Amino acid sequence: MKQSAKEKIVVLAVSFTLFVGGVLALSMDRGAGRTVVLACVVLALLAVAVRQTVLKNGKKR
Predict the structure, then answer these.
(1) Are 11 and 48 in contact (CB under 8 A)?
(2) How far is CA 9 from CA 20, 31, 46, 47, 49, in A?
(3) SS3 59
(4) N or C, which terminus of the chain has less Cβ within 10 Å?
(5) Which residue, 14, 22, 21, 13, is CA-closest to 47?
(6) Distance (Å, rounded) from C-alpha 17 to C-alpha 45?
(7) Is the pLDDT reported for residue 60 higher than 80?
(8) Confidence of residue 55 (pLDDT cuts 50, 70, 90)
(9) Is the separation of the CB atoms in 45 and 23 below 8 Å?
(10) What distance in Å separates the CA atoms of residue 5 and residue 10, rounded to the nearest whole number?
(11) Residues near 38 by Cβ (< 8 Å), separated by ≥ 6?
(12) Model confidence over 2-40: pLDDT tens digits?
């Protein structure tokens, strides 16, 4: 399997895991713990998106 295919699978798996973590956090009772988990999930998903964008723009050049 090509390296780029492996990277895509890893990014997809990490994104899915973070998404499921966010969904599970929504079922938690309201409070600081839930807020922290949701904030971490959103920041991690944003970091994945930024990384992918940077890699894509780097390959164009």
Answers:
(1) yes
(2) 16, 34, 18, 17, 14
(3) helix
(4) C
(5) 14
(6) 10
(7) no
(8) confident
(9) no
(10) 9
(11) 22, 25, 26
(12) 668 888 899 999 999 999 999 999 999 999 999 999 999
**pTM beyond 0.85:** no
CA distance 8 to 39: 24
Cα gap 21→42, rounded to integer Å: 10
In SS3 terms, 3-57 reads as HHHHHHHHHHHHHHHHHHHHHHHHCCCCCHHHHHHHHHHHHHHHHHHHHHHHHHH
Distance CA 6, CA 14 (A): 12
